[in-house]
Write a structure and sequence with these properties.
Oligomer: single chain
Number of helices: 13
Helix content: 40-55%
Distance between the termini: 34 Å
Strand order of the largest sheet: 3-4-5
Order of helices and strands: HEHHEHEEEHHHHHEHEHHH
Largest sheet: 3 strands, antiparallel
Shape: elongated
Low-confidence stretches: 285-308
């Protein structure tokens, strides 16, 4: 006795067919299985959009010559402007199929979208290099983590043993370089730790090593397409949206679209540093005085009550004297923090939904196993009590 409400079991194996079957269209996907793959694992996948950067007008940017000499980088960073269609990005990544090395193809809403070195190089007007250090070809060529971290921070003790470092521990010139990377090339929150791929990219840019940007972008964009982890964010949402628009894919009224944040400029660095200073003030962790580690006496109750007012008055005085971030910068910083909180809330809701779906699926599977056991028992009873036919 089979149950009519048996839930569909989620498939954890990515569909591999990349040719559209003639005469069939499953709401823009190649097959029913690919449509289910999108609904199961990518329907609410987080999408991180990059920002544009006017690096030529950033004050005291020591690595401007390093970026200027790279063909097409200045124009790419400055002109990568546009909105991010979250729905199209998720459909693109879910349908992305690997045909070869740095050679992919997607099928979005009935249209094929090529995603390979030749097409991406022509689209962003940056040639694909044949000799490069990034992306890393083999693990033997990776510099030692402690050497890179000491170079970027000046403090080898900042290494936590895993090759990760705090963004606020970077030296000022490398912090500006990281702001360009985390906003425009490998988008993530500027307050996040730097992991090994981030350290390698910043270290390579600082040393003026050869970087094949097209290969790097293909790697970070295609990486989430093979994973069923809801935390595996989709990166470069603006670029993906523009690639799909160039292929003739039309947006729908039901699509979820995020507006791109402002261009990265001098005020971006002031806001970011202001956030770090505010967090250090609130948490009692500052860059100054770390070496001395002098004990601080606990404030009296009336002093603790007056502390927030004193801090606010000091902030207002610093703004009036031009030493701190302006009110607009603080508002924009608060908006960025709220957006990051919304992304985290969405990720937690997706995890909770996945947990509840798993419980429901286990429950139905258990019921089906019980029903199948009863069916087998009834069949054995029928066979036992049914008399044999009379002899002819």
């Amino acid at each position: 006795m089979a149950s009519s409400s048996t839930p569909r079991v989620k498939n954890t194996q990515k569909p591999t067919e990349w040719v559209m079957r003639r005469g069939r269209d499953y709401q823009g996907f190649r097959s029913k299985r690919e449509k289910e793959w999108y609904e199961d694992w990518f329907f609410k996948r987080p999408v991180v959009a990059e920002r544009a950067a006017d690096v030529a007008n950033i004050d005291d940017f020591a690595f401007l010559p390093t970026i200027q000499r790279r063909m097409g980088w200045i124009e790419f960073l400055k002109n990568n402007v546009g909105d991010c269609n979250l729905t199209i990005c998720r459909e693109f990544i879910a349908s992305l199929i690997e045909k070869g090395t740095y050679d992919y193809v997607a099928y979005v809403r009935g249209k094929q979208v090529p995603f390979n070195l030749a097409h991406l190089s022509q689209f962003i007007q940056i040639p694909a290099l044949q000799q490069y250090t990034i992306p890393i070809a083999n693990r033997e060529s990776i510099p030692p983590s402690d050497v890179m971290i000491q170079y970027l921070t000046g403090k080898p003790s900042e290494w936590d043993g895993l090759g990760n470092i705090k963004a606020q521990t970077l030296l000022p010139q490398f912090y500006k370089l990281w702001m360009i990377v985390c906003n425009c090339i490998a988008p993530t929150s500027h307050t996040n730790d730097l992991y090994l791929p981030d350290i390698l990219l910043v270290h390579a840019l600082a040393h003026d090593n050869e970087i094949c940007l097209t290969r790097y972008l293909i790697s970070i964009i295609a990486h989430p397409s093979m994973h069923t982890l809801h935390k595996e964010s989709i990166k470069m949402g603006v670029l993906i949206t523009k690639l799909c628009e160039d292929a003739g894919i039309q947006a729908r009224t039901t699509d979820k679209i995020n507006k791109q944040l402002g261009i990265v400029n001098n005020s971006t660095f002031r806001r970011s540093l202001g956030q770090f200073r505010a967090r250090a003030t609130e948490g009692g962790e500052g860059d100054e005085g770390d070496e001395e580690n002098e004990p601080v006496a606990a404030p009296a109750p009336h002093q603790r009550e007056q502390a927030p007012r004193v801090q606010q008055s000091r902030k207002r005085a610093a703004v009036e004297q031009g030493e701190g971030p302006s009110s607009n910068d603080l508002i924009l910083a608060k908006l960025e923090e709220m957006q990051q909180m919304m992304v985290q809330m969405e990720q937690r809701s997706v995890e909770r939904y996945e947990e509840l779906s798993k419980r429901e699926e286990d429950h139905y599977n258990d019921l089906n196993r019980r029903f199948d056991a009863w069916d087998a028992r009834f069949q054995s009873w029928d066979a036992h009590f049914q008399p044999p036919p009379p002899p002819m």
